[in-house]
Amino acid sequence: MLDVCLLGTGGMMPLPNRWLTALMTRFNGSSLLIDCGEGTQITLRQKGWSHHDIDTICFTHYHGDHICGLPGLLLSIGNADRKEPVTLIGPKGLMKVVNSLRVVAPELPFELKYIELNEKREVININGYEIIAFKVNHSVTCYGYTININRAGKFVPEKAKENEVPMKFWNRLQKGETIEEDGRIMTPDMILGEPRKGIKLTYCTDTRPVDIISEEANGADLFICEGMYGTDEFIKKAKEKKHMTFPEAALIAKKAEVKQMWLTHYSPSMINPDDYKESVRKIFPDTVISKDRRSITLSFED
Amino acid sequence: MLDVCLLGTGGMMPLPNRWLTALMTRFNGSSLLIDCGEGTQITLRQKGWSHHDIDTICFTHYHGDHICGLPGLLLSIGNADRKEPVTLIGPKGLMKVVNSLRVVAPELPFELKYIELNEKREVININGYEIIAFKVNHSVTCYGYTININRAGKFVPEKAKENEVPMKFWNRLQKGETIEEDGRIMTPDMILGEPRKGIKLTYCTDTRPVDIISEEANGADLFICEGMYGTDEFIKKAKEKKHMTFPEAALIAKKAEVKQMWLTHYSPSMINPDDYKESVRKIFPDTVISKDRRSITLSFED
What we know:
The structure is a homodimer.
Chain A: E1 2-8, E2 22-27, E3 30-34, H1 40-47, E4 54-58, H2 64-67, H3 70-79, E5 86-91, H4 94-101, E6 112-117, E7 121-126, E8 129-135, E9 143-151, H5 157-162, H6 170-174, E10 179-181, E11 184-186, E12 196-204, H7 211-217, E13 222-226, H8 235-241, H9 246-256, E14 261-264, H10 277-283, E15 287-289, E16 294-298
Parallel strand pairs in A: 3-4, 4-5, 5-6, 12-13, 13-14, 14-15
Antiparallel strand pairs in A: 1-2, 1-16, 2-3, 7-8, 8-9, 9-12, 10-11
Helix pairs in contact in A: 7-9, 9-10
């Protein structure tokens, strides 16, 4: 099970009653945050989710509305007396940007680890999450993220016996361990069936529509996508600012055949995003015009 | 007339429904901000006051809860297309700290000017405000601020005649100009009576009680003071963290003979500051347990 909460739905600047876009997920005791704008720690507290278990923070890019809340969040996590390291993931320049912002938070009781993204596509396995970062198309280097919770196959005793795996190792192999005994190496696939369908979440803000997004979001259980502008009347501005309109996002969702799409990252000038609900649902019916702190629990099938 | 708004009343970290402590004043078209924690721009917007006219931002010190909101605010002011410079005032290190935080806001459409405080007490005249910065006693270098709106004396025609000031200069002299004609220098005091009582506001957070505070706040129309802890039961913690209790603040207000005191900068662990109202009013009756966005307009006498 993966808990997902869209902490805010605003773009550019925080507004009363509309926090900046950021996502938190919880899986197996380990929380992951994507982006941290000004006020993210407050909306997180409003939701009632703890910042103490945030092990990983991913950044799409380093515009202020996606990272200004980091020093305050780190200070608050520190005040909650966290000792375990926090891993930060983001485009090249991550360490420089974070160290600059940390001028007001130079001492923390936990270690920060850095993973800087340099390739067009990178895969990172951390705390049970498979994170796929893929480069999108914004005015600065920006990445989208797919979070996969992969699921091993079922235990098949016949297969274990067939492969002559001693019963004493079955449990450890089921947990994913690789075991060596007397020079023989035993791997989980020797006792398990085909991997089962896992959970897939794709998150994408601050970009023009590019093919990579529908490719990476393909078949996602949940696709969270920016919609800076409500209609294609704003297409010129969207192109200039390197953002998307609702219809553009809907076309990606349709092409990627995702189960549902949540729109977010609304322009401060968009008073009521719901106004565009019907028109966008004509393109992709399973569109949700998200509000702050919308959450869902995604479960494995069966 | 000086409009005053206490934008938030929290200390240490922003909470839902309690923003971090910051003050905004408006005088004669020029706004001044003291401190800018995470979310200050949002509570300002909730109040309905514009960030566009902020000409001056003073910092008490550089702990995160007093400055983390600066890059976001500067970006928002920039988005509102301000062109006029903004002057920043704060303890030594100001430029270094601000430039570090500006890693996410490197380009702004207006100039930033810096006034770094080095002395125990400094007086700065800017946009009709007389700002007195005075060093207090916190875990890092920290200043309190007095804002004076000074008021010249009344025009006295008899005095102007007595001093043989030509009538054609009366208006300009009343506006504060100094005029030279044929080698003779004429100053406003040659046509004005004794300066009248102005408006005085003193603002002080993040400090232990020290004599300088009551000296600088003496006779203030409004004294805004930190009260991190409600009662003297917390005196040990207050001393350790270099903060004050409500009773300590009240003793300063009493000694300084201010007209009224507003408490602020409550610890996140203080659920209901009002619980301590009666006890603190026994020491200083004109104490207000402030809530976010409390405001007042201070007027000249008569």
